[in-house]
Amino acid sequence: LRKRLEEMKGKESISKDGYKVEIAGNIGTLEDIDKVIENDGEGVGLYRTEFLYMYRDRLPTEEEQFEAYKVVAEKLGQKPLVIRTLDVGGDKEIPYLNIPKEMNPFLGYRAIRYCLENAEIFRTQLRAILRASAYGNIKIMFPMISDIKEVREGKKIIKGVMEELRKENILFNENIEIGIMVEIPAVAVHSRVFAKEVDFFSIGTNDLIQYSLAVDRGNQHISHLYNQFHPAVLSLIKMTIDNGHKEGIWVGMCGEVAGDEKLIPLLLAMGLDEFSMNSSSILKARHLIRNISKEEMESILDEILSLPTAEDVEKFIDENIMINI
Length: 325
Ligand code: PEP
Ligand code: MG
Hints:
Residues 4-292 form the PEP-utilising enzyme C-terminal domain. One of its GO terms (molecular function) is metal ion binding. The active site is at residue 254. The protein contains 14 helices and eight strands. Strand 2 (44-48), helix 3 (62-76) and strand 3 form a beta-alpha-beta unit. Strands 1-2-3-4-5-6-7-8 form an eight-stranded parallel barrel, surrounded by six helices. It is 44% helix and 12% strand. The radius of gyration is 19 Å and the shape is globular. By secondary structure, the chain is α/β, with parallel strands linked by helices. The site of phosphoenolpyruvate (PEP) has 10 residues, from strand 2 and helix 9.
């Protein structure tokens, strides 16, 4: 198997019937980028920048962030690099930010909600990202969006930062793509509206599953209820992809589900454009995509989505898809 996976390097991620997708890697620390390149990732679909802020006692400066983003952008060359703005809160604690203790941190003061309230911290990060955009194919992504107003406000802040950089004669990509994570069910349901105002979606299934099933993603006692095969979760994913495509934007996924071998065939059938995953899964995912036909998967998609339970969905996939690959 190892040899077969090695052979996947340099090959396209294309289905048996000629449908091409992009398989990218998720990164947190700088070392992760080397693993994405080693595993022939076609880009980075999620750079979790909170790691630049964690395990230290003060904010990273604009210069420190700029260097980090630039190094990754340069290593990737023309391949896309989606940089997610600070996703603090939830299970990601940054003590020096002094976020008060909350009863429900996953539903609390976090991510884009924090950044819009603390515009200086946000602007510093956006300046660093925009400056680095002169050195590669960078895209900006906002986490934990729940309301279109947050998108508008975030874009307005980016515009202001761009204006400032222009005045300082600092180069950046004027046409940088701005996208959002779809990880709150309300956004999936309302995705047609969001798609009109952003350049791309990236579905964050880790949170989307937790919020749509009301199951804390880190709570061991209820982990059996956290299920990516839940038909409602699959419907939310399909809805997001369909609505994105109706408005002409690309749709990716950077939650764990993007690398789930049993779900990749369904995501291909739904038309997902970009799969971003842990770099150790990239070659396996490519191998799988090259061995399935999108049209064949499309022909069973409706039947799968109409099954009543997660167990039924998983069983159907095991019996009808996995066995034939
Ligand atoms: C997600 O929620 O699916 C995601 C990719 O973001 P994180 O795991 O960093 O919350
Ligand atoms: Mg998330």
